[in-house]
Design brief:
Elements (H helix, E strand, L loop, with lengths): L26 H10 L5 H15 L3 H6 L11 E6 L1 H5 L2 H20 L5 E7 L1 H4 L5 H14 L13 E7 L5 E12 L15 E7 L1 H10 L6 H13 L16 E3 L12 E4 L9 H4 L15 E5 L21 E2 L24
Parallel strand pairs: 1-2
Antiparallel strand pairs: 2-5, 3-4, 4-5, 4-9, 6-7, 7-8
Length: 350
C-alpha cells in the first residue's frame, strides 16, 4: 500500500462550497464539460481534455505536448487520470494510481520520450469548487498524494520534481521539474491563465530535461543549440493568456514591452508565483479580476535566465535545471531537491 500522510482523508472533497449549477467558466470550458462532467468513459474524457489544452491553454509547451500524433518539436507528456471512482476509493487508491503513473512516466522520461506529467483530478465537485480555505486545504492534500516524499505539502512553498534522463554519454541524470496547480475555478480570477476544464490538475514540466532530450533524440547537436529554442518558447508563453473570456487579461507579462527584447529577457512578471504549488492567497481569493493586477500583488522578478546552456555546478542555486545531477540507476525515482520559500527579488533563484 502506498504510504500517505497521517490524517489525510480527502473528506474535504464532500465539504467544498460549490458554485450553483449552470455557472459558466467560459464557452470553451462549458463545451468541454459536456464530456468531462458526463458519464462518458475515461478514454473519451482524456481525448476531450487534451483537445482543450491543445487549443485553449496559453502555455506554448502545453499546446505542443498535448497535440495528437507525433510530438511537436520532440516534446511529449504523460497523463494520469484520477476520476470520481478512484477519488471515492480513498486517498490510498489515489496515491497508488499516481505512483504507478509517475513510475511509468519517469521510465519514459529517462529514455527521452516524455518531459511533462499531468495528473488530472476529474470530478464535478472540484470543477465547481468555490475559492476558499477549504479548497486550499484540498489542493494541498491532493498534492501530498503526488509528492509523497515531501508530504504533507504546505501552501505558499515551491516544490520541485526530479525528472531522469540518460544522456548521449550513457550517464543517467536528474533534472528539476516545475510542479504547478491548475483548476477550473481559476476562471476570471487572479490566476486566470491556470484555468482548465474538469476539476484540478497538477502539472510537471522540465524545460531543461526537454532541451537535453532534444539532443538525445538527435534533433539538435548539443545543448548550446537546444537551449535557445526552449528559451524562445518559454518567452513566447508569457503575455499570451487571458483566453476564454473577453473580460480576461493575461496574468503574466513581459517587463520590457519591446518585442525584440523578449527572447533574451532575464525576468518577467505575473499576478502570482508560477512555481508556488498552492498559493493560498490566490487559490482562496473569490474576487473577479478583469482589470490590471495591483502592484502589491505582483511578482515582479520571475526568472527566465536559468534557461541557458552555461555550465552550472551543485553550488549554483539553479543547478539541475539544465545541467542534471548524475545518479546511479537505482536512484531514478529519487527526488533530492528540498522545498523552497519564495521571495520576490531579482537575486532569488532556486
Amino acid at each position: 500500500m502506498t504510504p500517505i500522510p497521517d490524517g489525510l482523508s480527502l473528506n474535504t472533497l464532500g465539504e467544498l462550497p460549490q458554485y450553483p449549477p449552470g455557472t459558466s467558466f467560459g464557452p470553451d470550458i462549458d463545451s468541454a464539460h459536456e464530456i468531462l462532467l458526463s458519464d462518458t468513459g475515461e478514454e473519451v474524457k482524456r481525448a476531450a481534455f487534451l483537445d482543450w489544452v491543445a487549443r485553449h491553454q496559453p502555455c506554448v509547451f502545453g499546446r505542443m505536448a498535448t497535440k495528437t500524433g507525433k510530438p511537436a518539436r520532440g516534446l511529449a507528456m504523460d497523463l494520469c487520470w484520477i476520476g470520481e471512482q478512484i477519488l471515492a476509493a480513498g486517498p490510498h487508491a489515489v496515491a497508488a494510481r499516481i505512483a504507478e503513473g509517475r513510475r511509468i512516466w519517469k521510465e519514459r522520461a529517462a529514455r527521452g520520450e516524455s518531459s511533462a506529467f499531468l495528473v488530472i483530478f476529474n470530478d464535478r465537485r472540484l470543477a465547481y469548487a468555490r475559492p476558499g480555505l477549504e479548497f486550499v486545504r484540498l489542493c494541498s492534500e491532493l498534492a501530498s498524494l503526488y509528492l509523497i516524499e515531501l508530504a504533507p505539502i504546505q501552501p505558499d512553498i515551491i516544490y520541485t520534481e526530479a525528472i531522469p534522463l540518460r544522456g548521449c554519454d550513457g550517464v543517467l541524470r536528474l533534472f528539476k521539474g516545475s510542479v504547478q496547480l491548475f483548476h477550473t475555478g481559476a476562471h476570471l480570477r487572479r490566476h486566470h491563465d491556470r484555468r482548465i476544464p474538469g476539476g484540478v490538475m497538477i502539472s510537471v514540466n522540465g524545460p531543461g530535461h526537454y532541451a537535453n532530450s532534444l539532443v538525445t533524440q538527435g534533433l539538435y547537436a548539443d545543448l548550446a543549440e537546444a537551449a535557445p529554442v526552449v528559451r524562445r518558447l518559454a518567452a513566447r508563453s508569457i503575455g499570451t493568456g487571458g483566453l476564454g473570456d473577453d473580460r480576461a487579461r493575461s496574468t503574466t507579462w513581459h517587463r520590457d514591452a519591446r518585442t525584440a527584447e523578449r527572447d533574451t529577457a532575464r525576468w518577467f512578471s505575473a499576478a502570482y508565483h508560477l512555481d508556488v504549488l498552492v498559493q493560498s492567497d490566490v487559490v482562496s481569493d473569490p474576487s473577479l479580476r478583469t482589470g490590471p493586477c495591483p502592484a502589491s500583488e505582483q511578482w515582479s522578478w520571475l526568472h527566465l535566465d536559468y534557461i541557458d546552456a552555461r555550465h552550472t555546478t551543485p553550488a549554483d542555486r539553479t543547478h539541475g535545471w539544465f545541467h542534471g545531477m548524475p545518479i546511479h540507476d537505482n536512484d531514478m525515482h529519487h527526488n533530492p531537491w528540498p522545498p523552497v520559500v519564495p521571495l520576490d527579488a531579482p537575486d532569488f533563484n532556486y
